[in-house]
Amino acid sequence: MQEQSTFGHSSHAPARFFRIEFTGSGSEYFRIWIVNLLLSLVTLGLYIPFAKARRLRYFYSNTLIDGQALAFHGNPWRMFRGFVLLALLMAAYALSGQFSPLAGLVAFLILCAIWPALWRASLQFRLANTSWRGLRFGFRGGLAGAYRAFLPTYLPALVIVAVGAWWPEVLQDRTATELTGPHLAVLSASLALMLLGPWTLALSKIYQHGHYALANQHSRTDLGVGAFYILMLKYLGWTLAYLLLAGGLLFILTKLAGAWLLVPLVVLLYLGLLALVWPYLTVRLQNLVWNRTRSEDMRFESGLSLRSFAWLSLKNWLLTLITLGLYRPFAAINSTRLRLEAVQLLVRGDLDAWVAEQALAQPDAAGDAAGDFFGIDMGL
Predict the structure, then answer these.
(1) Which residues 6+ apart lie within 8 Å of 271 measured at CB?
(2) How many whole angstroms from its chain centre is CA 41?
(3) Which residues make Cβ contacts (< 8 Å) with residue 93, sequence separation at least 6?
(4) Has residue 224 got a pLDDT over 70?
(5) Exposure string (b/e) for 198-224, b if CB count within 10 Å is 16 or more?
(6) DSSP calls for 45-69
(7) Burial class (CB in 10 A: 0-12, 13-18, 19+), 74
(8) How far is the C-alpha of 175 from the C-alpha of 25, rounded, in Å?
(9) pLDDT, tens digit, for every residue of 144-167?
(10) Closest Cα to residue 93, out of 57, 85, 346?
(11) Global pTM?
């Protein structure tokens, strides 16, 4: 009698868990980080893509899956080309509004028209230049899916930019007491942006996690939009509860001890916001998307603990503040280790056969070549 496998269909193929280990060291990464920072400052930011390539190579080479390290093969000069392209686009958009509101609107429309394509190229570039056991990853998402992911927020954002182009005083006047048609349009569009935010997040994660590729494996996900709305509602409730508690505590303590305590209390409560509220979204989102990502013979399991990540975040922020930012690379190493080692990979099949199969295959690299040509890496 066949047993039902965890992959959703019957199979006798053996399956085993692969642990993910992160062996990075804070002291090692500090040396990379400080050099990257200094060179980026000296070159007025032009070294940023080279710094990113060094950082990715270090983090990837210290990420081990079943004892085998990942590798990053991205060409920093191609990343520099993508960096310059993005910088020019952002500069053109920022400066266009200085000439005329209409020019700003046109620049926004152009940016909206090409941004999803650039985002897709970024995903292709990062994954095509990532390997494990000699197997190159890939991204197989189509262009239409990238545009669909951004569409919900494009429409209300366009309303806000259009109002700013034709009635710039609406966005500039902070003292207006009468609500006109343009004011109502901006308010309605802003509310729509907030309401549609979880939808856009859901579409982007579904698009990403539904199109990863490794050898003959192509990822899929059963994520639904509703799960993201539930997550964001819980996050909103978590945030409001913290703000109410923190506000009440701030009011009571300043009444008892005096106004001199206000500044240090605000700093501590802000650290609490970073250490307790932000980690909630990070933890729940990681567990949500990776627990629902799988392929024919692979499945992820993420069990990142909110308590562990919250305590680590609090420690990281406190030490970063005390050391005036010098603890930042150590914090990055600690957070990466906790997040990666909370994930494990269940694989069924012979990996050596996958390697041999990919070596014999003639892959369609058109999409990956497009991403590599632009050299754009926005991060995953």
Answers:
(1) 314, 317, 318, 321
(2) 25
(3) 104, 107, 108, 111
(4) yes
(5) bbbbbbbbbbbbbbbbbbebebebebe
(6) TTTHHHHHHHHHHHHHHTEEETTEE
(7) buried
(8) 52
(9) 999 999 999 888 888 887 777 676
(10) 85
(11) 0.84
